[in-house]
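Re: the request from the purification team.
They wanted to know what the chain is likely to look like in 3D before they choose a buffer screen. I agreed to run a prediction and write the result into the notebook, where they can find it.
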Amino acid sequence: MSDIIRLLPDSVANQIAAGEVIQRPASVLKELVENSIDAGAKEVHILITDAGRTCIQVIDDGKGMSETDARISFERHATSKIRDAADLFALTTMGFRGEALASIAAVAQVDLKTRLENEELGTIISVAGSKVERQETISCPKGSNFSVKNLFFNVPARRKFLKSNQTELSNILSEFERIVLVHPEVAFTLHSNDVELFHLPVSSLRQRVINVFGKKLNQQLLNVDVNTSLIKVNGYVGKPDSARKKGAHQYFFVNGRYMRHPYFHRAVMEAYEKLVPVGEQISYFLYFDVDPADIDVNIHPTKTEIKFENEVPIWQILAASVKESLGKFNEVPSIDFDTEGMPDIPAYNAAAPIQPPKLNFNPNFNPFQKTASNYSRPQVEWENLYGGVEKAERRSEPDYEPEVIDYPAFQDDEIEPEQTTLYDHETVAEKSSVQFQFKGRFILTSVKSGLMIIDQHRAHIRVLFDQYLQQIKNHQGVSQGVLFPEILELPASEAVVLQEISDDLAAIGFDLSNLGGGSYAINGVPSGIEGLSPVQLIRNMLHTAMEKGCDVKEEVQETLALTLAKAAAIVYGQVLGNDEMTKLVDSLFACATPNYTPDGKTVLSLLKEEDIEKLFK
C-alpha cells in the first residue's frame, strides 16, 4: 500500500494560515497598524482604496527594519517578541506570533519600504503569493510603508465572498476605532478613495473618544477610576439617561488590547439595573491594566478573546467601580424625605442633666364605660352626619331607562369541519359592521365562522409593513417637511452604512442632507409618524441594517420597513372608535398574509361558534 500522507507546500500552508488571521480587508488594517504601534510610531497614515479590495497602505514613522529583518519578516513565525514559551505569559505588545505579514503576503501583493533611523538608505521588498519578487536598496523616509494590493488575488473563492464596499469599509472603520481609542498618544489619519475620514491628533483619552464619536458624547460620560492590587480599571461609562436600544458604543481594553467579554459586560449592566429600561444598552469605554501573567491572549487567532485567571474577583471590582461612579456623580436617584412638620432633634449637651420622658394620660379613662366623661373628645352625632346620604343617593339615580344595545348575533351558517389556522377572505365573509375593543389591545369582531380576536398593534404592523415596503420598491414614499430640522450625528463607521441605505430611506419619505463631518440634517420624515423621534428611528434602522449586512438589498429593505412599521403602529392601550377599528380590520384582510406579522408573530385567532356553544352546555 502506497503512502498517502504528504507535507503541504509552503504556499498552500500559508494560505490556510491566512484564512484564520486575514478574513477581510479590516484584518489587514488591524495587523499592519498594530505592527506600526509596536514599532514605536508617533504618526500613522492609512490610505484605503475601494474598501481595501484594491489597496491598503499604512505609513508610519516607527523604528523601521534592516534589510535582513525586512526579508525575514514575511516568513511564518518570524517574530522579535518571543524567544521561548515563557514569553507568551509576559506579553506587552500587540502582535507576537509572527503570522500577520506571512498571512497577508500569502493572499495579496505586498510592497514594503522601510529604513532604520540611523541608516541613510532603506530597503524595498515586493512579495506576491508568498514569493519574493524584488528586493532592492532605495532612498525612503524613516519607518515603514506597507502597501497591500489586490487582496485575495490568488484565492478567487475568498474574494468572491467579500461584502459590498460600504460594508467592508464599515468593518475597516470599526477596526480602526478599536485601535485609536486605546492609543491617544499616537496621531492617526485615514483616507478612503482620497477623502479624509479621520484626522486624530495626539490628545487625552477623553478627547480621543469625543473626536471619534462626536462632541455630543462628552455630556454623557462619567469617569471610572479604581486601582486595586488585582486590577486597575479606568475609563468612562454613560449616564443612565443616555441609554439606547441599539448603537451603544461598548469597548473593553486589556493592557492596550481590544477584547470582547460578555461576562464583564453583564457586570457593567448590573450596575444599571432598574436605572435604565429593560433591553436598552449603555455606552462604556473601560480600560483594564492587569499583570500579563494573569491573562492569556493566545486563545484566538484575532486575539479579541482573552482568558482571565481571576474572572470572578474582577467582575466584582468592575461592578463596584461602575456603581461608585454612578453614585459619585449623583446619577443614582436619591430619596427626598418630607421633613415638614417633623420635630427638631435637639443637639446633645453633656453638661445638661438627663431627664426621663414624661407621659401625659388620663388615669380615669375606662373604654368599657359609656359615659361621656371618659372620653377626651366630644361626642359626634353620627345619625345627623349621614342623614343626607340616602337623599343624595336617590338624587344620583337616573330618571330614565338605560339604552339597550342590540349586539349583532353570530352567523348561523354551517361551520367547516376542519380546524384552520390560516384565515382567508372567505373566513371573514359577512363580517359584522360593529367591532369591540377589549382592554385596549384586542379587537373582537363577529365573522362567518365565529368570533375573531385581532391584536390591534400587530395588525397595524402588518398593514404598515406592506405599505412601507411597497413605497420603497416603487419609490413612492410621501415626505412631510419639518419646520425645524433635527441633526443626526454619526461616527464614520455608521455614516458609510447610511450612504448605502440612503436611497431606501428616501423612498420611505426621509429627506436627509449631508452637512459633513458625519452630521446630517433631517429635513423631511414619512407622513404618519408624528410623535416619533426621527433621529432615534433612523439610528434603529441603521443599526439593524448593519446587523443584517447592507449588501443584501431586499433583506435590508424589509428590515427598514419593519422597523418603521413597529415604531409607527398603534400602541397597546390606545382607544379606537368603531370606524377606526373597521378600517384597520379591512386593511388587514387586504394584505396578502394577514395572519402573521413580518417577523412571524400571530396577528389573529378564531374562536369557532361550536366551541363557544360548548362553553354553555
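For the purification team: Residues 530 and 568 are 8 Å apart (CA to CA).
Please add any questions underneath this entry.
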